[in-house]
Amino acid sequence: MKRILIIEDNAEVRENLAEILELYGYATEEASNGKEGVTKALAAPPDLILCDVMMPELDGYGVLKILSEKETTMGVPFIFLTAKTEKEDLRRGMNLGADDYLTKPIYKDELLEVVQHRLTKHEKLQNQYSKTSAQLIAFIDEARGFAELKKLSTDHRLRTFDRKEKVLSEGDYPRYLYFVERGKIKLYKTNDFGKEYIIHYCQAGEFMGYTPLISEQDAYSFSAAAMEESALRLIPREDFQKLLHANPNVASRMIKMLANNVVEKEDQLMQLAYDSIRKRVADTLIGIAEKEDTLNFDILRDDLAKMVGTAKESVIRTLTDFRESGFIDIIDGRIFIKDKSKLGAIMG
After folding, report:
1. Record: fold of 269-344
2. Which H or E element spans position 81?
3. Can you give the pTM of this predicted structure?
């Protein structure tokens, strides 16, 4: 049974939320202020946290900041409970790492939908990360079999990158296999006129930079940069190639795991070239939503334009048109998809 911690200073609201969640099979725990909520979350990390923004002792932002810095709670889905008058503060919460928000008064159907969606997404990410990490560790164990080398497999260097910071450049010598531990990394090409075109982006739980290592190329054919603050594990080229050549059957499975349907993604990118700008923007928004398993996300308009393959001004005009048509909403630059079916129905 999933356990949800409700941090809310209004007893009536708190008890109402607990009653609804318990009726639908969730276990709940309550805290009447932020300080009490932090104490309970750290003592027994819940599966999800619902937290009011404005509270005595410690407000919701303070709660999120503290819990996001603790190893035991940093990955727990966090949903803000906010009054309509506080919507302008949502940007601050999202920047701190909140997963979603619910606007008061909170209705049963909306509460259950958001809670279930966030729990499902979190479970998927955990399974994906566990599966990927387990496969990599098993691969290393099988290929090496030495205790002193086994330590190396779990001790790869972690490096952080600021937003827009370059990870690698086209033409660089491929020194590492990169594993995205958190954040997003865009892979892009630059034409003779200096214009960038994003060919793919990787998020937490994905590998990048493996193609030149597998084919033993001497240079990257693309560049990569952080789309947001990110952390990458750097696995040395020599280590990866030793593992890759140790067992053909294991190597085959690893390559399929790393590739992650690259051919399908390339076909989708090729199709974009034949579609109108409106359709390309719509398809790109839907693609981001499906990849990240959320209907709201933050992306630089420059990056979105490079994914679509058009000018930033054209993307901004199209987003404005979509908002006026009721397909999306934009709050402090963050895109909220309101009608995914209508976006998908836009013709080329």
Report:
1. Arc Repressor Mutant, subunit A (1.10.10)
2. strand 78-82
3. 0.44
